[in-house]
Specification:
By secondary structure, the chain is an alpha+beta fold. Helices cover about 50% and strands about 15% of the residues. The protein has 6 helices and 2 strands. Strands 1-2 form a two-stranded antiparallel sheet. Helix 3 packs across helix 4 and helix 3 crosses helix 6. The chain is globular. About 20% of the residues have low confidence.
Length: about 150
């Protein structure tokens, strides 16, 4: 492999680990436990007739897993947004990011796509989910004091 290929792969892997994208299983042990109602029914048929016995009981059992129905983890997205903002500041692009964010998230993504492919900030921002990009734009507008 070429040196540049290894470098790009290393930067991408570092960004993924920094945002927790590469290790979702690590947080599975700390996933919240939800209660789920389970309905139990039993049908019994006798051989001498078609009488049926139906009993219903509701039992509450813990469910395994993270958020459901499209719920996003607020803490995870907030950490990713803050980490992306710190990467922007370390690269010295805070002023330009704020100027792009003032025009909305579409203009911000246009600015991001205009960055060099060798710029790690571009890959950090592109690794964010769509909702997190909008939150990053709002975070920049609310927290930039330059």
């Amino acid at each position: 492999m070429k040196r540049t290929t290894l470098r790009a792969a290393g930067v991408s892997a570092l960004a993924a680990v920094a945002f927790g994208i590469a290790a979702p299983a690590a947080s599975a042990a700390a996933a919240p436990v939800r209660s789920v109602a389970v309905v139990q029914t039993a049908d019994v048929q006798q051989s001498t007739g078609s009488s049926s016995l139906s009993t219903a009981g509701v039992t509450t059992v813990p469910a395994v897993g993270g958020p459901s129905n499209g719920e996003a983890s607020e803490a995870g997205v907030g950490k990713a947004v803050k980490a992306a903002w710190e990467a922007i500041k370390r690269a010295g692009l805070a002023q330009k990011a704020w100027e792009a964010a003032r025009n909305g998230s579409a203009a911000f993504m246009e600015w991001v796509n205009g960055l060099s492919s060798w710029n790690p900030v571009k890959w950090v921002i592109q690794a964010l989910p769509g909702v997190a990009v909008q939150e990053l734009v709002e975070y920049i507008l609310n927290n930039y004091t330059g």
